[in-house]
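note to self — DONT lose this again. spent like an hour looking for the file last time. sequence + predicted structure for the chain T wanted, 297 res
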Amino acid sequence: MEQMVDTYLLHLKVERGLAKNTLDSYRRDLSKFIGYLRRNDIHTLNEVDRRMIMSFMEDLHNQHRAAATISRNLAAIRSFYSFLVQESLVKTNPSTELDAPKIPKRLPNVLTVSQVATLMEQPNSRTAAGMRDKAMLELLYATGIRVSELVDLNLVDVNLEMGFLRCLGKGSKERIVPMGKSAIEAVGAYQQKGRGKLIRNSEEQAVFVNIHGGRLTRQGFWKILKKYVRQAGFQGDITPHTLRHSFATHLLENGADLRAVQEMLGHSDISTTQIYTQVTAIHLRDVYRQSHPRAKD
């Protein structure tokens, strides 16, 4: 069974060009499923029926896994079996008629404009690491790119003169995203005065490097952000994705076109982008209630 999972993951990598993080997620979910089958004395994927998958989902529920996690596991199983049927490795797909649990739509957590400004003030721009951190924060908020896309940036991907960057999103889809003045200045200052003090190898192509001179990782950025969130005194769950959410919400609040925001975020489906319009509507309602003389009780 593990060999079939490896074959499937190779297919996703080669034929569909999925990113490493997505492949790792598929591997974790399918390994969890295979482990459950083995604990229940099932040793071939042809033995699995609809009831067994339902039992696996119930087991996840009993472990207090979120509905989104259970849905993701079911989606991985369904896609895996579709591949196996297509390759004539199993006879049927036992997951086709199973419904995923309802996932409550959660509105994304966003920062206010003043909170963003406070966060940007935290790095010490007199140090090389501080210049790097300032550039990363400014760039995330200016472009809405994912953290994985940020740390994957190479020098050739950033055009400060033209004011845009090129990044590879999910499924290795390339997109061009504009940068604002603050981001251009911060990245420019880092490249001119800070990056050279951090790199150890002149041939290093990564834009953002760690204190050892190698490419910064997602986990490394997480630690950096947490430090500045504490410094700023912010409460609540503020993650790297919060800057992406704030980017989209603030654009829409100021009249940006939904399709343009979708393009910049790299969403394949506009319904994914539309959740930010709900955040904007709530913001407008709150502004109205605070400002209109006849809106208050």
